[in-house]
Write a structure and sequence with these properties.
The complex is a heterodimer of chains A (611) and B (268). Chain A is an all-alpha fold and 611 residues long. Chain A contains 17 helices and no strands. With 268 residues, chain B is an alpha+beta fold. In chain B, strands 3-2-1-5-8 form a 5-stranded mixed β-sheet. In chain B, helix 1 runs antiparallel to helix 2. Classes of the chains: A mainly alpha (611), B alpha+beta (268). At the A-B interface, helix 4, helix 10, helix 11, helix 12 and helix 13 of A face helix 1, helix 2, strand 7 and strand 9 of B. The structure holds protoporphyrin IX containing FE (HEM) and copper (II) ion (2 copies).
Chain lengths: 611, 268
């Protein structure tokens, strides 16, 4: 991993930098090293969050049965003497599973890893606009993660009010809940710093000739995402601050008067607050946040599909306008999470209409991806397989969204496993498959090593099949009425018939969880034994493929001039089936002329020989 | 898929189920169509020869317009169609005149239910009096309230009657969910929300809590029993009797059990 070793060209001022291990690997300001740091940290959290999910699934399939192998090793605040999870720990697990996966896995991977790695390289900059802020933005993330995780070891355990943290439940003082609030606040701060950096970099540091409409979709998507982050995250920060005050000094922003709380703390009777206020503020951030978690993935998938279809992206501008529409509409649909909350039902009507409309740009994007593959020359490499899966899984996630957008249907399926199915089709089937696509696509550039296609494909197929086996049946559980976040479905007669399905889901979930070790094996194998990567192993057009693999500190070893968009694949003007953004038009013409010349001379003797 | 839905017994449930299946078939058709095209593309356009170039094509504005307008029309229609049913379920202006009015108060982890006493009137409640022993904060000074019947996790109603449930919570947010009635409504502390339904089939149906309310969330199970009118009348009379007897025992002062048949309560 000598990727971040400074290149000698970067000048004398970099000498101190080169000398220090700490500055290179730990407090690095190089966007590529920061991207790797985000990657490693988030992958660690992926396994932690995944382990939590498997504990949850075990309990749901075999309620009250001890966890095999490790059940007896866990502390008695987590499990009963049989080694089975106790309800209090179960709610902590489901809370931390959601929180970690969203804030410590998907957002850091898509925005932190992909954003950091791709933006400067794809727009032809030597680094981010504010490298030090970039470093700080990364370091806030593991700190926040550690604070949240610390909750498991404080008295009363960690936060247990769900990832949505609805008060009054979350306002009943517990140390773990406070740590959750502080951790999220810091993660949000990190996001805001990152977002500012991305926007500034994209606005100011594009290479000569890199106009807005020549930027790859990944850059566009991260750009818009950064804007959403800047608009939404401060609102989350405000809400978290209020919740913190409610917990700490009993301000009652969110707690009404005369609550009867079993806890010792009767200050809550102060009152005057509104539980629904939190939901409005939270979803005002968290609905746009679901687009923070999908837009960069859509960008990545657009780039990967175009490259491996060897075709221009279908409707490039339409794709950009669709993203803009999604991000604008995304800000006015938050109330669809609150249809049954006690909010004025007239608002339900308004938010339903907005939500239905937001499905339109999602449909536009899907059709354009299909258009991109139409009459292409599809190469099913590992990144392409993952991108292909993304499209199809996102269609399922988008369509299940229509059920929930319809208010009367939502009355029934709200807070059931139908929602859990939806979430995972968009966030796992969508975002995570896009992350796999992006990771395997840019891995050769990141590390200078190719990844094993065999391991990559094994990982893909096992993940894809067990993913569907895990999450599709959840829609059926939802139709059956199974509530989310319950510890033991067998308490209810109407849920008893679903127990075999719960077992089926758990078995698939186990396979899905353990399949992720194949990915780790592929990454380690590549670092150890991978073939060296060429500059442009996928024969793609965008600027990152102009840099050495891996790029040195400062990125490019020659000046860049951009002449065209990033998707000129299979152009009839060019000899090869790709046309890098930097190849001067006169060179393209000359190559073509030479090529035609060669063809002619090759043909001439042939016609001679027929005599 | 929709065969997994529990039996619907409520009047507006038909509309919900109908909409559910409409959306199901529409989305199923879209899913099959999109994925059929997708699979055909994946097979047909797979690279066969290294030297072949793909079709160099940047897009088509007519197509873009078409696949913007069509989904828009479809989703606008769904929103419009949905809204009619939504109004019937949740708009208080659309709810029918209630035949019975009861109050439900969520508490971790149970549902308190309050029926008006034999006078048919729910007594005055005072939020300041709410306590674990008096979940509704019934005001002892109001004679209308002294005969109110309060139960836990058990609700009985006659079939084919419009029931209005006034819903709230005394601690955290719960959600009142009766799958067979196709009704779900959060119970929010500090706020009363009206829920109405009309059950058409006798039997016992489970009540669940659908909003995470703590570690015992899964235990918040209640039972709603729908009975014929005469059975219901007998049941409620018995409850009044029991309640009166219990009260009598408490004060060790025998009172004649008054049990007039519960007439339809008027709007309190
Ligand atoms: C066609 C587009 C979409 C529509 C119409 C849609 C609609 C909805 C609706 C109405 C809900 C609330 C359901 C309820 O709680 O009753 C919901 C929940 C959710 N959606 Fe979507 N959605 C769409 C796309 C997405 C995408 C792209 C993501 C993320 C990448 C996403 C992530 C989520 C999450 C995480 C929740 C659940 C939040 C929770 O309660 O824990 N959705 N969606
Ligand atoms: Cu949303
Ligand atoms: Cu609950």
């Amino acid at each position: 991993m000598d990727a971040a070793l400074p290149h000698s060209h970067s000048g004398a001022s970099e000498h101190a930098h080169r000398a220090s291990f700490v500055r290179t690997y730990i407090f690095s300001t190089d966007h590529k090293m920061i991207a790797k740091q985000f990657m490693v940290t988030a992958l660690v959290f992926l396994f932690i969050g995944g382990a939590f999910a498997l504990f949850i699934r075990w309990q749901l399939a075999y309620p009250g049965t001890g966890i095999p192998l490790i059940g007896h090793l866990l502390p008695d605040t987590w499990v009963n003497p049989d080694g089975a999870i106790i309800p209090a720990f179960y709610t902590q697990l489901l809370t931390m599973h959601g929180t970690i996966m969203i804030f410590a896995v998907i957002i850091p991977l898509l925005v932190g890893m992909i954003g950091n790695f791709c933006i400067p390289l794809m727009i032809g900059a030597d680094d981010m606009a504010f490298p030090t802020i970039n470093m700080i933005s990364f370091w806030m993330f593991p700190v926040a993660g550690a604070i949240m995780m610390a909750g498991f070891w404080v008295e009363g355990g960690t936060a247990a009010a769900g990832w949505t943290g609805y008060p009054p439940l979350s306002a009943i003082a517990s140390t773990g809940q406070t740590l959750w609030i502080v951790g999220l606040f810091i993660v949000g701060f990190s996001s805001i710093l990152g977002g500012l950096n991305y926007i500034t970099t994209i606005l100011n540091m594009r290479a000569p000739g890199m106009t807005f409409f020549r930027m790859p979709m990944t850059v566009w998507a991260v750009f818009i995402t950064a804007i959403i982050i800047i608009i939404g995250t401060p609102v989350l920060a405000a809400a978290l601050s209020m919740l913190f005050m409610d917990n700490f000094v009993h301000t009652s922003f969110f707690t009404p008067a005369h609550l009867v709380v079993p806890a010792k703390d009767m200050h809550l009777t102060a009152g005057g607050g509104q539980p629904l206020l939190w939901q409005h503020l939270f979803w005002f951030y968290s609905h746009p946040a679901v687009y923070i978690m999908i837009l960069p993935g859509m960008g990545v998938v657009s780039d990967v599909l175009a490259t491996f279809s060897r075709k221009p992206l279908f409707g490039y501008k339409a794709m950009i306008f669709a993203i803009l529409a999604i991000s604008f509409l995304g800000i006015i649909v938050w109330g669809h999470h609150m249809f049954q909350s006690g909010m004025n039902p007239m608002l339900g009507t308004t938010f339903m209409v907005a939500t239905m409309v937001i499905a339109v740009p999602s449909a536009i994007k899907t059709f354009n991806w299909l258009g991109t593959m139409w009459r292409g020359q599809l190469d099913f490499t590992t990144p392409m397989l993952n991108a292909t899966a993304f499209v199809s899984m996102f269609v399922i996630g988008g369509l299940s969204g229509i059920f929930m957008a319809s208010t009367p249907v939502d009355v029934y399926i709200h807070d059931t496993y139908f929602i859990v199915g939806h979430i995972h089709y968009v966030l796992f089937g969508g975002s995570l498959f896009a992350i796999f696509a992006g990771l395997t696509y840019w891995w050769p550039k990141m590390t200078g090593k190719m990844m094993s296609e065999t391991l990559g494909k094994w990982h893909f197929w096992v993940t894809f099949i067990s993913f569907n086996g895990t999450f599709f049946p959840m829609h059926i559980l939802g139709v059956g009425g199974m509530m989310r976040r319950i510890y033991d479905p067998t308490v209810y007669d109407f849920l008893k018939p679903f127990q075999p399905m719960n077992e089926f889901i758990t078995i698939n979930a186990m396979i899905l969880g353990f399949a992720q070790f194949i990915l780790v094996a592929a990454l380690i194998h590549s670092i150890r034994k991978g073939k060296p990567a060429k500059r442009n192993p996928w024969r793609a057009n965008s600027l990152e493929w102009e840099a050495p693999s891996p790029p040195p500190h400062g990125n490019f070893d020659h000046p860049l001039q951009v002449y065209r968009g990033p998707y000129e694949f299979s152009s009839p003007e060019s000899v090869r089936d790709f046309l890098p953004q930097t190849t001067p038009p006169e060179d393209v013409k000359r190559h073509m002329a030479e090529h035609l010349e060669r063809l002619k001379t090759a043909e001439a003797p042939q016609s001679d020989s027929t005599h | 898929m929709l065969t997994w839905l529990p039996e619907n017994i409520s009047t507006f449930g038909n509309g919900v189920d109908h909409l559910f299946s409409l959306i199901y078939y529409i989305t199923l058709a879209i899913f099959v169509l999109v994925n059929a095209v997708y699979v055909v593309f994946i097979i047909r356009y797979r690279r066969r020869r290294k030297s072949d170039k793909a079709f160099h094509y940047h897009g088509n504005n007519t197509l873009e317009l078409a696949w913007t307008a069509l989904p828009f029309a479809l989703f606008a229609f769904l929103a419009f169609y949905s809204d009619g049913i939504w109004r019937d379920i949740k708009y208080s202006t659309h709810a029918p005149n209630p035949d019975y009015i009861v109050e439900v108060m969520g508490q971790t982890y149970m549902w308190h239910v309050r029926y008006p006493g034999s006078d048919g009137v729910l007594g005055h409640r005072d939020p300041a009096l709410v306590a674990a022993t008096n979940p509704f904060g019934i005001d002892p000074a109001d004679p209308n309230g002294t005969d109110d019947y309060v139960a836990i996790n058990q609700m009985h109603f006659p079939i084919n009657k419009n029931v209005l449930v006034r819903l709230s919570s005394m601690d955290v947010i719960h959600s009142f969910f009766v799958p067979n009635l196709r009704i779900k409504q959060d119970a929010v502390p500090g706020q009363w929300v009206d829920v109405w339904f009309n059950g058409r089939k006798t039997g016992e149906y489970e009540i669940a809590c659908a909003e995470l309310c703590g570690s015992g969330h899964y235990l918040m199970r209640g039972v709603m029993t729908f009975q014929g009118q005469t059975d219901f009348d007998a049941w409620i009379d018995q409850q009044y009797l029991n309640a009166a007897n219990a009260a009598a025992q408490k004060t060790a002062q025998a009172l004649p059990a008054s049990a007039p048949s519960p007439t339809t309560p008027s709007h309190p």
